[in-house]
């Protein structure tokens, strides 16, 4: 599904569709560390999770953006993302995984 068709189907997800893809190369194992722009976008998504869209909406948007993505996201990379980005927050304020339950 193209970016435009995803955006049309999930208009609330626009910021997630803009910010999250910059981290995919790290999360699937192509890069050994996240890019600076990925880290900036993780901080923006954390803020949106706490003061905007909320973690559940961001979760659903990440699911929508990642459907059918190959290779799959690596759990070890997901866990290390906030540490490697040196985020102001020591954790992600929203879930990321291949099998996440956004209703929790």
TrEMBL record:
One of its GO terms (biological process) is lipid transport. One of its GO terms (molecular function) is lipid binding. SUPFAM superfamilies: Bifunctional inhibitor/lipid-transfer protein/seed storage 2S albumin. It comes from the Eukaryota. This is Bifunctional inhibitor/plant lipid transfer protein/seed storage helical domain-containing protein. Transmembrane segments: none annotated. Belongs to the plant LTP family. InterPro entries: Bifun_inhib/LTP/seed_sf, Bifunc_inhib/LTP/seed_store, Plant_nsLTP. Keywords: Disulfide bond. Residues 13-91 form the Bifunctional inhibitor/plant lipid transfer protein/seed storage helical domain. It holds the Pfam family Tryp_alpha_amyl. The lineage of its organism: Eukaryota, Viridiplantae, Streptophyta, Embryophyta, Tracheophyta. It comes from Quercus rubra (Northern red oak).
């Amino acid at each position: 599904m193209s970016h435009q068709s995803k955006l049309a189907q999930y208009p609330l997800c626009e910021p997630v569709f803009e910010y999250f893809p910059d981290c995919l190369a790290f999360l699937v194992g192509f890069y050994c560390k996240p890019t600076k722009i990925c880290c900036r976008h993780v901080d923006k998504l954390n803020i949106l999770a706490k003061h905007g869209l909320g973690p559940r909406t961001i979760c659903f948007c990440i699911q929508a953006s990642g459907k059918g993505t190959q290779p799959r996201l690596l759990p070890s990379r997901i866990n290390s993302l906030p540490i490697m980005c040196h985020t102001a927050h020591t954790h992600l304020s929203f879930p990321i995984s291949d099998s996440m339950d956004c209703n929790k």
